[in-house]
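ESCALATION

Customer reports they have been waiting on this structure for their group meeting. Please prioritize. Original submission:
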Amino acid sequence: MSRPRVAVLGAGANGAGIGADLTRAGHDVTFIEQWPDHVEAMRRDGLRVELPDEVQVTRVNAIHLCEVATLRKPFDIVLVLVKAYDTRWACELIRPLLHADSAVVGVQNGMSIDDVIDIVGPDRALGAVIEISANMFIPGVVERQSPPSKSWFAVGGTTPTSQSRAAAVAELLSTAGTVEVTDDIRSSKWMKLVVNAAELVPSAILGLPLGDAVQVPGMRAFMAEAGREAIRACIADGHRLRPIFGMLDARVDDPEAYADQLINAVLVDFTLPTTRTTVLQDWMKGRRSEVAEINGLVVSVLSPEKAPLNAWVVELARRIEAGELRAEAANAALLLAT
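Update from on-call: job pushed to the front of the queue and completed.
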């Protein structure tokens, strides 16, 4: 595929950072975003990406959701970077702008690939594992803590046709990080879900950056056991342990040891002391989180009795989103009580 026409559907911290990389590499990229102030800031000032060692300002083509209906030319590759719970409507939104050979890639947390398949069909749907640390609180400004040299993706389809398109998607994303093509995308996505179940919501419940949350007495052990519950859910769901993050020493023969290894890899290789998880960022912005698609999935596959830590995380997240609790360090005793 020569110079594909690309849509970044969801230009939040990750989507905007990736889209900027693609734009700077000369690709034809359209940003589609639901935060009006963010779209207007990008149009007015360009997209400012603050990397650890430099600041990049990139002129981008950004449009509001309501302007999608004015587009006529189809996209070859759509990178879906909305929240997992927004996947279905986002895919419906973009479906009129697909052709028979388009690739729609769920570059998201959770098992959103199945929602993508439901809307656009299995031959056009691909999934991706993403590991990037980034924050965004100001319209038009991304604090990207992991530059392309420290960002990682895995891409794959679920049918021979969709898998045949994975190489083109991998080539596109290689501008934004290291990319692998996986022959079992669901298992690869489960591996990332193990990490997310352990770290994203538990640390957010404390209202702390991930590095600070891990230092709270008892938290590292809590995260480890939550991750072990998740890896048991992966196996119970019929999937297998796969290396991700380019790990050459992945202990895929020892599920519980591998869960710990995955958690350590993210803490050591992909986060900075100031990294706030996407869940904490959502709560800081008054948005609901993806807890149902992450810890909730673990509980639904096993049961509350077999995944008590994940079930407790879901309950505490529910209380925070209902306004019954604040996300703060004082919640540590409550979280660890289980």
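Sent to customer with the following note: The domain at 5-183 is CATH 3.40.50.720 (Rossmann fold).
Escalation resolved.
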